[in-house]
Hints:
Elements: H1 11-30, H2 36-43, H3 47-53, H4 57-78, H5 86-103, H6 105-109, H7 117-138, H8 148-164, H9 174-187
Amino acid sequence: MxxxxxxxxxxxxxxxxxxxxxxxxxxxxRDPGASMEQIxxxxxxxxxxxxxxxxxxxxxxxxxxxxxxxxxxxxxxDGRPDTAPPLVALHRITANVLEVKGAWTFALExxxxxxxxxxALHEELGRRCITVLERARADKLIDGSADLLWVRRVYYALLxxxxxxxxxxxxxxxxxxxxxxxxxxxxxxxxxT
Length: 193
């Protein structure tokens, strides 16, 4: 006989967990050493509530990483990587990912523990990225001889630079940044012929 399935949280408990995770992102991005009590205060919940939901600080960190990774995975799926034309999918996914990464910077920069839900999600996201790049190559948007693992690394670097780069980008919306990333990825900085 297997273990009992985890019961879904009541709506108020789910809101409480979401508030705690959002507060953890805000507090820990400013002070990575912040205490559970500081996070509880920022979430507007009692310290006992945070400890009831998360046995210890590491459990909270793991839940934060998993929650952010799930949101990132949903952002990719919302870009319709398998069905939208590859250029449209690349743009939508990039804009969606920029929004999620901008909101969950601390959580998404955490190293995912091997075997964790977050690690599995990040591994799947890497595969999904390669799939979209393969579709783009099939549509001749990417050279047929291009190393897609390298292209993915460049794409990730462009995402990171857009998120942490120049203060001149402050206020640029995710669609504008996505267009710049995709244009740079597909055309580089060389002259247009």
